[in-house]
C-alpha cells in the first residue's frame, strides 16, 4: 500500500505540476490573444485609415484627370482660336497685299500711258516745231 500511496502522491504532484503548467499556458494564451486582438484592432484602424486615404487619392486623381481634360479642351479651343485669328489676319494681309499690288500695277499702267501720251505730244511738238 505504501507503494500505491507514494505513487498516488507522486501522481498528485505531477497532476498539480501539469495543472500549474496548463494554467500558466492558459494565461500565456490569454495574454497572446489579448495582444493579438490589440494588434488586429491596430491593423484594422490602419486599414480604415488607408482606405480613407485611398478614397481621397482616388477622388483627387479623378479631379486631376478632369482638370487635365478641361485644360486639354481649353488648349485645343485656344489653339483653334489662334489658328483662326492667324488665318484671318493672313488672309486680310494677303488680300491687302494683292489690292496694293493691283493699285501699283494700275498706277504703273497709268504712268506708262501718260508717258506714251507725253512722248506722243513731244513728237507732235517736235514735228510742229520742225525738229
Short descriptors:
single chain, 131 residues, 0% strand, t-SNARE coiled-coil homology domain-containing protein, coiled coil
Low-confidence stretches: none
**Mean of residue pLDDT?**
88
Biggest sheet, open or closed, and with what strands and sense? none
Number of helices: 1
Number of strands: 0
**In percent, how helical is the residue content?**
over 70%
Could you spell the SSE succession in H and E letters? Answer: H
Describe this structure in words.
The chain contains 1 helix and no strands. It is rod-shaped. It is an all-alpha fold. Helices cover 98% and strands 0% of the residues. The mean pLDDT is 88. This is t-SNARE coiled-coil homology domain-containing protein. It comes from Candidatus Uhrbacteria bacterium RIFCSPLOWO2_02_FULL_48_18. Keywords: Coiled coil.
Could you write a compact summary of the structure shown?
With 131 residues, this protein is mainly α. 98% of the residues lie in helices and 0% in strands. Keywords: Coiled coil.
